[in-house]
Design goal:
This protein is an alpha/beta fold. It contains 13 helices and 13 strands. The protein binds pyridoxal-5'-phosphate.
C-alpha cells in the first residue's frame, strides 16, 4: 500500500499543513522573538490569550514544554502535585517534572481520566518536616488515555474551588481543549476559567505543524518566558511556524465537530464487529479506544493486519487499540476504515488459533 493512500488514524498529530496554511506560512512576517518581538508570534499569543480569557499567553515548541514549565513555576523543588493516574503529564513526558524541576507527582486513579471531587479530599500533605509540600492540581481536558473524554465542567469547577480554598494552584493540560469546547458548545474561555494556567496545542486537531501555548496571568507568562529560554525553547523567527498555528486557530476550530462525528462512525463499526470491544461507549470527541479479544490475537497484530489493508492505528497496550480522527481524514476514508475494522475482526475467526500460537 503506497504511503500516501494510507488512512492514518494513529494520532491527530499526523496532519500536514494545507496549501492555504502553507501560503500563510510562506508570507509570514517575522522578527527575532528572543531579542524582542516576532509579529506573527505576537499575534498568535494575543489571539490565544483572548480566546482563553487570560491576560497573556506564550508560544512554545511543544505541549510537553508548556505543561512542564507551568508545573515548574507553580511549585518549588521538593513539592508535590496531584494529578490523575493516566494523565499525559505523568505518563508521556518522561517525568520531566522530576528530572528537570525536582518535583513529585501524586497520582489518583480516575475513571476514563475523570476524577471525582471527593477523591481529592485528604490528599494534601500535612505541613511538617517529614513530608513534601502539596502545591498544585493538574487536570487534563480532553483526556487522552481516557479516550478523548471531556471533563464534566461542574466537577472541574468543584475540584478547582476546593484547590483554591486550600491554597493550591490549578493547571489544565488542555492539549485538546478545542475539542472539548466544540463537543460541549461551551467557549474555551469558560472551560479555562477555573485554572491559573492552561496549556493548549495547535498541532493536534487544529492541524498546525508545530507548537503549543501556555496561558495565564501577565506575571506568570513573564516567568514562563524565562523558563522557556532555560529549557532551550527560545525560538527566533518562530513566526514561520506560528503562522500555521494562527491559521489553524482562525479556521479549524469549528470543523472539529466533523472529527467527532467520524469518531462516532468508527465506534459504531467497532460495536457491530466481533472480537473487538469498544471502551467506554460512544466517544465524546475524536479518540476511539477498543480492546481486542485475546482469542483473536494482540492489539499489535490487529493493527498490523489493518495496516496491510491501508488503515493505520496505534496499539496502546497489549489488548487496546486507539484511533484518532482529524482533518486529513474525510468521510469517505472513514467509511473505508469502518469496513477494514469489520473485515479484520471477522477474518480473525479462521486465523485466530494460529495467531495465538505465534503470539
Ligand atoms: C499531545 C499531548 C500533549 C503534548 O504533547 P507534545 O507532543 O509535547 O506537544 C500534552 N498533553 C496531552 C493530553 C496530549 O495529548
Amino acid at each position: 500500500m503506497p504511503i500516501d493512500s494510507m488512512i492514518d488514524l494513529r494520532s491527530d498529530t499526523v496532519t500536514k499543513p494545507s496549501a492555504e496554511m502553507r501560503a500563510k506560512i510562506a508570507a509570514a512576517e517575522v522578527g527575532d522573538a528572543v531579542i524582542d518581538v516576532d509579529p506573527t508570534v505576537h499575534k498568535l499569543e494575543e489571539l490565544t490569550a483572548e480566546l482563553l480569557g487570560t491576560e497573556a499567553a506564550i508560544y512554545m515548541p511543544s505541549g510537553s514544554m508548556t505543561n512542564q514549565i507551568a508545573i515548574r513555576l507553580h511549585c518549588r523543588p521538593g513539592d508535590e502535585f496531584l494529578c490523575e493516574a493516566d494523565c499525559h503529564v505523568y505518563n508521556y513526558e518522561q517525568a520531566a517534572f522530576a528530572q528537570l524541576s525536582g518535583l513529585v507527582a501524586h497520582c489518583i486513579q480516575g475513571v476514563h481520566g475523570v476524577l471525582e471531587p471527593q477523591q481529592l479530599i485528604g490528599k494534601i500533605r500535612p505541613d511538617n518536616d517529614h513530608m513534601v509540600r502539596t502545591q498544585l492540581v493538574c487536570l487534563e481536558n480532553t483526556h487522552n488515555r481516557g479516550g478523548g473524554k471531556v471533563q464534566p465542567q461542574e466537577k472541574v469547577k468543584e475540584i478547582c474551588r476546593w484547590a483554591a480554598e486550600h491554597g493550591l494552584r490549578k493547571h489544565l493540560d488542555g492539549a485538546r481543549l478545542w475539542n472539548a469546547a466544540a463537543a460541549t458548545g461551551r467557549p474555551v474561555r469558560e472551560l479555562a476559567a477555573p485554572f491559573d494556567s492552561v496549556s493548549v496545542c495547535f498541532s493536534k486537531g487544529l492541524g498546525a505543524p508545530v507548537g503549543s501555548a501556555l496561558a495565564g496571568s501577565r506575571d506568570f507568562i513573564r516567568d514562563a518566558k524565562r523558563a522557556r529560554k532555560l529549557f532551550g525553547g527560545g525560538m527566533r523567527q518562530a513566526g514561520i511556524i506560528a503562522a500555521g498555528a494562527l491559521y489553524a486557530l482562525e479556521h479549524n476550530r469549528d470543523r472539529l465537530l466533523e472529527d467527532h462525528e467520524h469518531a462516532k462512525l468508527l465506534a459504531t463499526a467497532i460495536d457491530a464487529s466481533p472480537h473487538v470491544q469498544l471502551v467506554d461507549g460512544v466517544p465524546d470527541t475524536n479518540i476511539v479506544l477498543f480492546d481486542v479479544d485475546p482469542a483473536w490475537g494482540t492489539a499489535a497484530q490487529f493493527v498490523a493486519t489493518m495496516e496491510e489493508q491501508g488503515v493505520r492505528a496505534m496499539a496502546v497496550s497489549p489488548e487496546r487499540v486507539r484511533l484518532v480522527t482529524h482533518l486529513d481524514v474525510d468521510r469517505q476514508q472513514i467509511d473505508r476504515a469502518c469496513e477494514t475494522i469489520r473485515s479484520v475482526a471477522e477474518a480473525a475467526r479462521s486465523t485466530s488459533a494460529l495467531r495465538v500460537e505465534i503470539g
